[in-house]
TrEMBL record:
NCBIfam families in the cross-refs: L28
GO molecular function, one term: structural constituent of ribosome
InterPro entries membership: Ribosomal_bL28, Ribosomal_bL28/bL31-like_sf, Ribosomal_bL28_bact-type, Ribosomal_bL28_sf
HAMAP family documented for this protein: Ribosomal_bL28 (MF_00373)
UniProt KW Ribosomal protein keyword: yes
Domain of life from the UniProt record: Bacteria
Family: Belongs to the bacterial ribosomal protein bL28 family.
Key words, A-Z: Ribonucleoprotein, Ribosomal protein
Single GO BP term: translation
Species for this entry: Actinocorallia herbida
Comp. bias intervals (Basic residues): 12-21
Organism lineage: Bacteria, Bacillati, Actinomycetota, Actinomycetes, Streptosporangiales
Name under which the protein is recorded: Large ribosomal subunit protein bL28
Length: 73
């Protein structure tokens, strides 16, 4: 919800070097945060990088950033 991370795509390469399609899924976690300004908790689906971003900038700034992008929080 915060970073807009989507799956990446690539090739799986076998021992004989045959190539088939594969997907690199992001590390998505569901986490609850407490919003002091609204006195409630919010449940967010975040990648591991998104959690690190919230630790760095704070939950209030992260929610502001998500609402600016049009994500319902």
């Amino acid at each position: 919800m915060l970073t807009g991370t989507k799956p990446g795509f690539g090739k799986r390469v076998s021992h004989s070097h045959r190539r088939t399609n594969r997907r690199f899924d992001p590390n998505i976690q569901t986490k609850r945060y407490f919003l002091p300004s609204e006195r409630r908790t919010v449940k967010l689906k975040l990648s591991a990088r998104g959690m690190k971003t919230i630790d760095k900038i704070g939950i209030e700034a992260a929610v502001r950033r998500m609402r600016a992008r049009g994500v319902k929080v």
